[in-house]
Amino acid sequence: VGLGPLTAAFCPWLQRVDRPDAIVANLSGLTPYFALVRAADRAGVAIPRELAIGGFHDQALDLGVPTLTMVLPWAEVGRSAVDLLLDKIDKGGKKLPGICVPLILCGGSA
Predict the structure, then answer these.
(1) Which has the closest alpha carbon to 70: 34, 100, 106?
(2) Which of 1, 17, 18, 26 lies 20 to 30 A from 99 at CA?
(3) Closest CA to 55 of 15, 105, 13, 10
(4) How far apart are CA 9 and CA 19, in angstroms?
């Protein structure tokens, strides 16, 4: 879906009285992000004062609009996934502990 149709889809949503205060999205495909920023502008919604935007990506982004980027350390995620899989194979049906992979927060004011 292109920028125009997405912008058109977001506009009525952002013009509602009960619109969200914040949106968190996957920022790997930036077309929806730019459509959201354009729709907020058309709806008269100020970013970040009236709408905070945050998202996940594999690197810090400077997109010209205050956006909180949660950087995912993919190499660490991959290593942890392999370790869990090997533990699962070694331990059979035993329940494995959860793991925590730290995020890096960059920019924005969300």
Answers:
(1) 106
(2) 26
(3) 105
(4) 14
Coarse DSSP helix, strand, coil percentages of the chain, rounded to the nearest 5 percent? 40, 15, 40
State the Cα torsion 49-51-52-54 to the nearest 10°: -160
Report d(CA 27, CA 12) in Å as an integer: 22
Spatial neighbors of 22 by CB under 8 A, at least 6 apart, are 51, 52, 53, 54, 110
Helices (H), 16-108: 30-43, 74-91
Kind and range of the H or E run holding 68: strand 67-71
Spans of the chain below 50 pLDDT: none
Q: What is the pLDDT of residues 94-103, one digit of tens each?
A: 777 777 877 7
